[in-house]
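Worked Example 4.2. Consider the chain below.
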Amino acid sequence: MKTVLHKANTRGHANHGWLDSHHTFSFANYYNPERVHFGVLRVLNDDRVAGGKGFNTHPHDNMEIISIPLDGDLEHKDSMGNVAVIRKGDVQVMSAGTGIYHSEFNKNTDKEVKFLQIWVFPNKKNVTPRYDQITLQSGQTKNKLFQILSPNSNDEGVWIHQDAWFHLGELEAGCQETYKIRKPGNGVYAFILDGDLTIEGQALNARDGFGVWDADSISISADSKAKVLLMEVPMEV
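Applying the procedure from the previous section yields the following C-alpha cells:
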C-alpha cells in the first residue's frame, strides 16, 4: 500500500475578492510539481463565490467536470442550452468532449456559494458533450458510503467517461467502514469535508486530502461526526 497526505493548510490558495479558492492540485497560478494530479484526478478546487458573482462564459474540452455544491445556490448555463441551479445535495457532471462553453454564478446576492470543482481526465477523447445532474435524497449518505458517480449510465448516481467511482459518506462518531476498490490498479483519494477521520491509520481533519493506492481496500473510522468524499480513479493517466 502506498499513500500520500495533503494537509488542508498546504493547499494552493487564491483570493480574487469575489472568488476564494483552495487548490489541492496545481491550478492557475498555483504550481507544485509534486501535486499536479492523483492518477486521472486532475483538479480538486474548494471554491467560495461571493453573492451575485461568478465565472463568466469560458470553454472546456476533453475533461470530465464534476461540481458538488456544499452551501448556497449555483446557477449554470452552457452552450448545449442547459440552464440549471444546483444546490447542496446535488451533483452535477459535464463531459466537455469536443468542446463546450459554460458559466457559473452565485444566484444569490446576499450570501456566498460554496462548492467543489473537480476535473477528471476522460478515457475517451472528443466525445459528444453532455450534461447531467442528480439530487441526493435525505439520509442516503448517513453512516454509509453512498455512490454518487460511476462509469455506468444505468448505475447509481451520475456517470462519466472514466473508470471512476465517487462516494459520499456522513458518518457519526465511531462509525467504521471498509471501502473495496472497484477496479484493480485504481487508487482512492479521500477529501475530508468536515470532522475527523482515520483512514488506514492516518488521522485526518477537515479539508485534508489523503490518497491510497496499491491496495485492495481501505479502512475508514470516524473520530467525530464527519463527512467524506471518496474518489476512486485509475492511477495511469
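The mean pLDDT is 97. Residues 146-234 form a domain with the Jelly Rolls fold (CATH 2.60.120.10). Compare this with Example 4.1 before moving on.
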